[in-house]
Amino acid sequence: MASPVEKTAPLIESFDEKQFYLDEFRGRTLVFSVPLDELARDTDYERLAAITRELLTNDTRVIVIVGTPNSGRGEQVLRRLQRRLGPLIFDEASIPLFADRRSRSGAFLKLEGTASAQPSTTSALLTTVWSVLRRGPLFVGVVAGIGPAEGTTFAREIAVRLRVHKLVLVEPQGGIVGADGKQLSFMDEAMLDALLRVGQAEWAGLAARRPTFEAARGALLGGVSSVNLCALAGIARELFTYEGSGTLFTHADYCRIERVGIDDFAEVERLIERGQREGVLKFRTPEEVAALLVNAYGATIGAHHLAGICALLTEPYAAEHAGEIVGLYAITRFKGEGVGGRLVARALADARAAKLAYVFACTAEERAQAFFERQGFRRVRTSDVPAAKWAGYDPRRKAQVAIYRTDLAPADSTGLR
Prior knowledge:
This protein is of the alpha/beta class. The chain folds into two domains: 18-249, Acetylglutamate kinase-like (Carbamate kinase, 3-Layer(aba) Sandwich), CATH 3.40.1160.10; 255-407, Aminopeptidase. 36% of the residues lie in helices and 21% in strands. It has 16 helices and 17 strands. It has an eight-stranded mixed β-sheet, sandwiched between helices. A seven-stranded mixed β-sheet has the order 11-12-13-14-15-17-16, sandwiched between helices. Helix 8 packs antiparallel against helix 10 (210-221).
């Protein structure tokens, strides 16, 4: 009797936040730099094709630059990509995006490694790329005679000159790992500048990745919105999830705290749902979520990445001139970037401007308790916050939560604050 066939995991998982990123990429152009060594197995081709097909059918242009150090294998590699990658990319959903068979085969071209070396040759290269993209949303360029570092530089030059939305650098090492062995999920321009100072990358054990840092910084300074660095196996998770699988590089103004607007509500709700599933946030009714949304702040990383949320509720506690911080949640990828602290700082600043007497927060999670203590809150009794907080509150949860409070202004002679 034949054994059952093992079910293969999908190459692109059904991530909850995937649609958010697809909406971001729609109508834009992404450049991928892929060393030929990363395409060693059938699954490598399938994975690259799957992400390319997903983007193409999302009305996103895709430019793939494949570099190979063997200068004499350009044509051979080109034919291999056409033969193995092409059939995987072009299916019933993507074929209508290309006018005819010629436009599909013409999406694959061999390029000279020196094409981006001089202004005149660079202009010719960019003209060629655009000529291909006018006939269909895909360009796959094979560059022979260049190593991984040169391939990264080549792709960066195309990304900068065409001012694309995102540059994706595929490297076998994946994202950046610090001296402590932990992956750095995020790096801004200031961090890149520090690492590129003489001796800093070497001191951090990252000397071999200096060309990657230089390419990422050059792309950001050249107008590319963001750069992702990951291994091919994690490319879908890097592009379509909050936590990612590699390292995201963005500009220096990396974190902005602003009141969220109605166009952000759906994305904030997805973060709330995620926090509830993780057990970080308590479950709320639709009405409670709505009250949170209209009082919420969002932390935005770069131009598009919502990294965290919180809200300051004051209306239920108007008589006590108090406010409550609720729904504080930062996604895994950015928890080490001080996002939570920035959100609370903004809420406290607005509380002071509103002349509130104090702000409090309730949490049953130990890490959150330590966080509020670091922000200057002190633990208090349930009677030290407004009684309205406990109206209809679950008694079991009330017995479990820790209450933290920070006073904002002393009382005056009338007893008001």
